[in-house]
Specification:
Elements (H helix, E strand, L loop, with lengths): L4 E7 L6 H4 L9 E7 L12 H8 L4 E5 H9 L4 E10 L6 E4 L14 E4 L5 H12 L9 E4 L15 E3 L6 H6 L5 E3 L5 H4 L5 E3 L4 H12 L4 E8 H6 L3 H19 L11 H12 L11 H13 L21
Parallel strand pairs: 1-2, 1-3, 6-7, 6-9, 7-8
Antiparallel strand pairs: 3-11, 4-11, 5-9, 5-10
Length: 326
């Protein structure tokens, strides 16, 4: 690298990011980094609202970023670009909650009902609505939606779609317990659900088996987040995307070694869980463009169908061209 450069990298405190926070990830010569613990919904050591700060305030050079919001940013020509690193993944099926005594047994039972979301464009919301329609044959347009947070990128809802807004700070679990909504789709369930104050169950009674079926059918654990940076930074340092790809690969390899210690986690059975997950999924934390292209295409389909992006563009548009051969 030519001129020395220090960059800020904002991300959550996942185990796969620990190597950045403890400095065991090594930057190449001419580059240094500051890893910032910035939450999205929660306030971490270095702040909150990571996605909003990145897209609206250019607060960081590089950031872990919402896949759904990123698709919208690219559609609108905002000056962000990605590298094919995907630090957060979730299945939708384990994030769909109903009351323990609910008569909802199948996704089709949600038609005409009211479902609470964080925001309409949250990536889990995008995935869940898309899976309802394209995997289970349930038109998400026939469900009423209640949001609790502002959208990061404005959009016009499709005609006829019912989207309401709850007051800021509303605990959707309490609304679920009172019967004011019929389900909650959220990656982080509200406190009333997590603490058991409102008796709930997952919509899919055997969500693990359903997720295994989904993984076997498609071959991927759905992407939630991407690593994004500002286009002007890439223009100044075209060698930076490759350096970042290597640094995240280092973190991945270091993180794998954590689980050789059966007492690394506070969970007593973590080694059993690690072995069980590996047997079912192998290593699902696959980065690079080529092996994730089909999953990206699916998200673009879902986003276009939900009126979040105007054009169903090719996934290549999302990334620095030099990273497309990964």
């Amino acid at each position: 690298m030519s001129n020395p450069l220090e960059i800020t990298i904002a991300m959550d405190r996942y185990d796969r990011h620990f190597p950045f926070f403890d400095g065991t990830v090594k930057a190449p010569d001419g580059l240094s980094y500051r890893a910032l613990q910035v939450g999205q919904s929660d306030h971490l050591r270095d702040g909150t609202d990571r996605h909003g700060q990145m897209i609206h305030n250019q607060a960081f050079d590089v950031a872990e970023f919402s896949m759904s919001t990123f698709l919208m940013a690219i559609d609108r020509g905002l000056p962000l670009i990605g590298i094919p690193i995907f630090p957060r993944r979730l299945f939708s099926q384990s994030c769909m909650f109903v009351r323990a005594d609910s008569d909802i047994e199948h996704p089709r039972d949600l038609i005409g009902r009211r479902v609470g979301l964080s925001s309409f464009q949250t990536t889990l919301s995008l995935l869940a609505k898309g899976d309802l329609k394209f995997e289970y044959g349930v038109e998400w347009e026939k469900i009423k939606w209640l949001m609790t947070t502002d959208e990061k990128v404005k959009f016009d809802p499709k005609p006829g779609v019912v989207i309401d807004r709850a007051p800021k700070g509303t605990d959707l679990g309490l609304l679920l317990g009172r019967g004011e909504i019929d389900a909650v789709f959220m990656p982080h369930p509200p406190p009333s659900i997590m603490k058991g104050d409102v008796p709930t169950r997952r919509l899919f009674k055997d969500a693990r088996r359903e997720e295994q079926r989904y993984f076997k059918k498609y071959g991927w654990w759905p992407i939630m987040h991407i690593v994004a940076m500002h286009q002007d930074l890439v223009a100044r340092r075209p060698d930076l995307p490759a350096a970042l790809m290597d640094m995240f690969h280092q973190a991945h390899e270091i993180n794998l070694d954590y689980y050789t210690d059966p007492n690394w986690s506070r969970l007593p059975w973590i080694r059993y869980l690690y072995e069980e997950s590996s047997a079912v999924f192998g290593d699902p934390w696959i980065n690079g463009f080529k092996r994730n292209r089909a999953n990206l295409e699916q998200f673009i389909l879902y986003s276009h169908d939900q009126g979040l992006i105007k054009e169903r563009y090719e996934p290549e548009r999302l990334f620095v061209p030099s990273t497309l051969n990964t």
